[in-house]
Amino acid sequence: MSTPEAVSSLTLDGEIAIVSINHPPVNALSTHVRAGILMRINEAVANDAAKAIVFICEGRTFLAGADITEFGKPPREPALRTVQDAIENSTKPVVAAIHGTSLGGGFEVALCCHYRVAVPSAKCGLPEVKLGLLPGAGGTQRLPRIVGPEKALEMVTSGQHVGAKAAHAMGLFDEIVPEGQLRESAIAFARRVLAENRPLRKVRDLDEKVQAARGNTALFADFRAKNARKFRGFEAPEANIKCIEAAVNMPFDDGLKRERELFMQLVSGVQSAAQRYVFFAERQVWKIPDVPESTPVVDVKKVGMVGAGTMGGGIAMNFANVGIPVTLVETRQEALDRGFQVIRRNYENTAKRGRITMDDVEKRMALLTPSLSLDDLADCDLVIEAVFENMDVKKTVFAKLDAIVKPGAILASNTSALNINEIATAVSKHDGIVGMHFFSPANVMRLLEVVRGDATSKSAIATAMAVGKKIGKIAALSGVCPGFIGNRILYARRLQADAMMLEGAMPWDIDDVIYEFGLPMGPYAMSDLAGLDIGWSKETTRHATVREALCEIDRRGQKTGAGYYDYDEKRNKKPSPVTEGIVREFMEKAGNTAREISKEEILERIVFAMINEGAKILDEGIAIRASDIDIVWINGYGWPVYRGGPMFYGDTVGLDTVVGKLKAYGSKMGADFTISPLLEKLAAEGKRFQDMK
Ligand code: 3H9
Predict the structure, then answer these.
(1) How many A from CA of 571 to the centre of ligand 1?
(2) CB of 148 closer than 6 A to ligand 1?
(3) How many other C-beta atoms lie within 10 A of the C-beta of residue 295?
(4) Is the pLDDT of residue 430 over 80?
(5) Which of 395, 408, 452, 623 is most buried by its number of CB atoms within 10 A?
(6) Do 650 and 611 touch, CB atoms closer than 8 A?
(7) Cα–Cα distance between 50 and 627 in angstroms, integer?
């Protein structure tokens, strides 16, 4: 058990007192850390031998912020502000010595020090907005006093970390000191402050930059307008903007009060609870109970990619981005050339946007080798198949690979729905087969579903997860079932949407509800984007569904200028009378009379059906934990992070309400619809998914 004494220390180097904090893993400002800092600063101030104070942290980072696990619990003394006041009002200069990441409350402590020095690899930032919060320890009032309101607005609403060089240029760091020499450099800096008799500089007293913007309402109106799309649905960005406005227009102490007020509103709200839950869920998702961290992994130095189409090319880019060479195999030269052209164009577009240099483009292209022969994959450590979604085609590819790849290589399928266990029957070493389901566009989307077959070895799973981390994805483990976690829930959503379409809701009515809920688009706009003809063919079409009927008249989605919606040349969509006619035709065929379906019903039937499917997935052991399902839907399908994912949303609505509503909708949910026994059990016990251990 940590104590203020154990997490802090005070030593003297001549006339310089060194207050040090050591509270792994990230020196979060938990109650003992706050008490430790307060105690040591007071001791240093009281010590006549000390003339200046260096404030430094041990381990991998400076203070990484408030302890997020303490939010939502009764506050404990001392308050962070008491600690900050002790530093800012110290009669001896305090120099913050920064390495790693100085974030949130941690950076707000640094802003109360009179001077800040940092090593070149250090970063600072106020990422509270990502937790649905705002910097609640004076950050919104001090930051604009150093960097000006424009930059402050960017920093607090994006939550981005700022590198040492940029922080120095903005005046956030006073000096950059050599890497690895932070302690001695900070002591030397403190000595200089004493020798030059520099003042006890307090950021709160700086007024020039905020005064310059006082009364400038356009500055804030423009910023809001420019970012309206990005901030849609989120409460925290607006609260952050209001705080910067307060910094500009109010005296410092009044600004602090405003900040406190708005912080308290956010921290007790559902959005921040959701975003804090997601913060921990994103870290939890990597942990697989029976695959410990010590599990041996294959060192993936070379990757083979079977298929250079949209998916294969996108997947290959992920590896080239981190310096891993990839051999891409296609059956025809033409397809190979086209695949490489698309990859080059994607990279060049990224370079045009200034995110990489043209030199990077060439370096990445040089890591990609085209081939027309699977034999060229003999020396790969990992081979990923991304060919046509057809079991026989996939089995043929894997049978060939089985005879080619070196012993111990991992074979992965990018299938989005097919049974990994059946694919594994095509190879002799079943345990090396794993699913790696990327989401389109694979070079952009963050989600990777790692699919565990019955025979998949722990090492293959650990390797797929490690590879996912290396290429910057967030990987969630799924068991085998049709559609795995993500698409299985997508299917449950679609069943309800299609049913309501035949009861009287037009595709755009349904899409509007889903968009207003916070997703980037509804199911029908999504179909139009992906193409309605996935899995459809002219030869076998039977005019059996609205989708088939649309494909039959060449309304196959955005690419043909029409699908569920009509599109103009700029791909702006509008409701289509043709689609409406077809929907009415099918409604009649089903013997239904159109009825008015409320927005509430649309939302509940869709979202509660998703929660129900998620509960089944959990009950069957397909997902390890409810929060993994949420990670899948946030990162793969655009579920709004401020609603925490479908399972978290179910918890906030109350699982008893979800079950009650599903029962009330009864037969409307569909003949095959059943309520998950797990969902019913939790609801009956008054529990949440989060209470499951
Ligand atoms: C704030 O400061 C509010 C104030 O303005 C107002 C106060 C009044 N608390 O990410 P990692 C855990 S809000 C508790 O894997 P990395 C994390 O869960 C806060 N725990 O390491 C993980 O645990 P486990 C503003 C925390 O090296 C372990 O530490 N600050 C906290 O990849 C390692 O984390 C932020 O938002 C925390 N604050 O990245 C910064 N931070 O091992 C949040 C981490 O059990 N933190 N943990 O899974 C980060 O962004 C990253 O953790 C950091 C290190 C960049 C620091």
Answers:
(1) 41
(2) no
(3) 17
(4) no
(5) 623
(6) yes
(7) 50
Between CA 343 and CA 189 the distance in angstroms is 50
Give helix then strand counts, H and E, for the chain: 29, 19
In terms of Cβ atoms closer than 10 Å to its own Cβ (0-12, 13-18, 19+), residue 376 is: middle
Type of residue at 108: E
Residue owning the nearest CA to atom 11 of ligand 1: 283
Assess whether 128 carries a catalytic annotation: yes
| Catalytic residue chosen out of the listed positions 128, 449, 503, 680 | 128
pLDDT tens digits, one per residue of 192-240: 999 999 999 999 999 999 999 999 999 999 999 999 999 999 999 999 9
Q: Which residues contact 252 (CB under 8 A, 6 or more apart)?
A: 141, 204
Segment 587-599, tens digit of pLDDT: 999 999 999 999 9
All CATH 3.90.226.10 domain ranges in the chain, comma separated:
4-267
CATH fold of 303-484, please? Rossmann fold (3.40.50)
Is the separation of the CB atoms in 297 and 321 below 8 Å? no
Radius of gyration of the chain (CA): 29
| Known catalytic membership, residue 108 | yes
User: Ligand 1: does its nearest atom lie under 6 Å from the Cβ of 136?
Assistant: yes
Q: Is the pTM of this model over 0.70?
A: yes
Q: How many residues does the chain have?
A: 693
The structure tokens listed for 249 are 């227009």
Q: Which CATH number fits domain 4-267: 1.20.1250.20, 3.40.47.10, 3.40.630.30, 3.90.226.10?
A: 3.90.226.10
The tokens for 24 are 């792994």
The closest alpha carbon to 143, from 276, 30, 256, belongs to 256
408: left (phi over 0), alpha (psi -120 to 50) or beta: left
Structure tokens at 572: 């702006």
* Given 43, 77, 108, 330, the catalytic residue: 108
